[in-house]
Amino acid sequence: MNSLLIVAGDPSGDLHGSHLIHAIKKASPSLYVAAVGGPLMRQACDEFLEDLAGRGVTGFWEPFLQLGFLLRLGKRLKNFMAERRPAAVVCIDYYGFNRRVLGLAQSLGIAAYYYISPQVWASRPGRIRVLKRLVRRIFVIFPFEEDIYRREGVPCLFVGHPLLDLLPACVEKKEMRAPVEVGLLPGSRPSEIGRHLPLFIRAFSQFRRHFPDSRGVLFASAALPDALLRDYRLEGIEIVRESDYSRRAALDIAFSSSGTATLENALLGVPMVVVYKLSWLSYWVARGLIRVPHISMANILAGRRLVPELIQNQATPENISRAAVALMENPRQYKALKGELRGLRETLKAAAAEGLRRCAPETTAYEILRELNLLQIPGTT
User: Are residue 365 and residue 337 in the same domain, yes or no?
Assistant: First the structure.
């Protein structure tokens, strides 16, 4: 029986992995798909091997705390690949663990693909040489990534950003009216929530001194247990779990952890203050590795500072509130920022429209199945 193994390690990878599985099933209905990921991939695949996305394994030294689990999972995947011989392995982002998965696949003579490249252009560019050796092809979601890989001789294809097909249009407001909707997006991993959510709660409290009618909205991932959030004082803050982004699109401003959420906010046209704190050991390591001047994708894509970024000791409730208030009290600046964010969306849409007939997961599924000669319905996707 022909099969694929798909591996993702965080909530965003779980989301995009689930859509990739649906696209694969559309083009090859009888193909068996096994997966490591999160709750969305569990629902989409034929065989779910492990919830890696819910573990929240990230950072530079934090993975050592879960080393036993990661080693056991690696051994399990090696045995799975050796016994079941999937036609290919598809890794989604999450380089640290997927680097090992790729190595295991190569040692067993199994084709490997990468969907949603790790951000090798932000740190440790030597990883490109590793990927060149281990993968048959990389499917990238930002146009500048294709240039980076092609210069290094890595087979790759720009497939467009999958969020473009998931996010609603930007909400246009003729004027700002009370109550101000403030989004709190502390991250999806327990460690990120522990570092960011207390800051965001206190910053929101201070923000309300300037905008008393403000409403706080805490966006929680599907994999995040309610018990984790009960440990925090959330008076006046509503917890929202949504899959269609409609509530997020209506926000006036967001306090956001750096990561996928900042790109989502940008494509929704939501102004934000970006915050990121690491353990001090991880921060010390990161300072020596990061090679880009910005941490939020909105600023990276714009090539300049569009939204405020508060990193490590700059990330205080006072600074977060101050930056948000300054933006909200300057209507001209606020309107200009929303226009800039809408422009980023249009730029990505224009780039994706060039030569692509399908959305990102469908293009990726089609190309992988075509190369493996596994397309059952050639005209689909």
Answer: no
In a domain, 129, yes or no: yes
For 207, the token pair is 């923000």
- Count of C-beta atoms within a 10 Å radius of residue 353: 11
Residue 172 has pLDDT above 90, yes or no: no
Find the mean pLDDT for residues 42-49.
98
Structural tokens at position 103: 């190595």
Q: What is the pLDDT of residues 203-227, one digit of tens each?
A: 999 999 999 989 999 998 776 777 7
Whether residues 128 and 242 fall in one domain: no
15 & 74 share domain: yes
pLDDT tens track for 74-108: 999 999 999 999 999 999 999 989 999 999 999 99
Is 149 found in the same domain as 11? Answer: yes
Burial of 130 (C-beta count, 10 Å sphere; 0-12/13-18/19+)? middle
Handedness of CA 42, 70, 278, 303 (dihedral sign): negative
pLDDT category at 286 given cuts 50, 70, 90 is: very low
What is the domain count for the chain?
A: 2
Residue 272 is part of which domain span?
A: 181-349
The span from the CA of 45 to the CA of 35, in Å, is: 6
User: Which residues on adjacent β-strands are paired with residue 34?
Assistant: 5, 47
> What is the spatial distance between Cα 353 and Cα 157, in angstroms, rounded to a whole number?
14
Furthest-apart CA pair in the chain: how many Å? 63
Residue 347 has pLDDT above 80, yes or no: yes
Comparing 98-112, 178-192, 264-278, the range with the smallest average pLDDT is: 178-192
Nearest residue to 273 (alpha-carbon basis) of 249, 240, 250, 295? 295
Co-location of 344 and 361 in the same domain: no
Q: Are strands 32-37 and 181-185 parallel, antiparallel or unpaired?
A: unpaired
Asked if residue 326 belongs to a domain, the reply is yes
Report pTM. Answer: 0.86
Do 127 and 275 have their domain in common? no
